[in-house]
């Protein structure tokens, strides 16, 4: 069956939500409700139906594929989500091939010692290397009578700081890994995925949907990879049955986020031409440093397991979703369903409040 045409309870839920939102926003329901108090119970009915639908979807999608004779390739496994995901999938019994930039560093050494894991050296900016790895993996799996069930394009760099302070070189380098790396991986591995009718999953970010201040180039890159999965779903899924998904975490405590330090901001500021530095001023540098420090300290989530569960779902559920938002339970089930319907004007105000929220949380945590 065409995976695009599978009926999903979430559709029903979202449609009901939007219809009610429009009715409330544009009045007809409010006018009627003043005469008919019973109508006020409609939001409650909505909440109930939506919860029931969510539950149905949850239960239906709990069925998982059998890992027997299935391999998964993951790029960017030196640390962070990639590293954790390798351990998780290998433990479930998949044959996991972990692409590491530095195969002789701590993360890769640890992975190499694990059962069901093999480590390959991979820099996703090298096109020849990516296609070579795909070929080698294809040959090895054929010999072992296995299939490449899934690919996770996870390799990524951080890039934080004001847009004007970030050089074109830095942005190009980040795009080379985060965007072109993902494209190279897709091009090299799609032929193998056609055989298994498997999964292609990318590590996105919530910033790929709503661009963050002081992380604009990074957000642009994540928007590009999200767009890749969305477009390829429409272009390729109907004929190849490959499922494309984008897992979008918010701020998590990974080495990538930890590296976005005040030092990086300082370095970028001091590398600016003097004329621009004078225009921006030290006061602004101080403000940005503080905001980024606060945001990282207060808003990052320590627990990566919720995100790993999202990847797991995308890779192994028999009813995988196309997009996964990963944050706290409260954010995923209450804040995000509302947030995703907000008009951009409202979002600008909410995002402007983000540093203040971080500051408040920081004070709260430190007192
Ligand atoms: C490795 O995979 C097998 C199944 O292929 C599984 O039984 C075993 O538990 C896995 N090993 C580890 C350490 O999880």
TrEMBL record:
A UniProt-annotated Pfam family: adh_short
InterPro entries xrefs: NAD(P)-bd_dom_sf (IPR036291), SDR_fam (IPR002347)
Annotated keywords: Membrane, Transmembrane, Transmembrane helix
Gene3D superfamilies: NAD(P)-binding Rossmann-like Domain (3.40.50.720)
GO biological process: steroid metabolic process
Ranges that cross the membrane: 12-32
Gene Ontology MF, one: oxidoreductase activity
This protein's name: D-beta-hydroxybutyrate dehydrogenase, mitochondrial
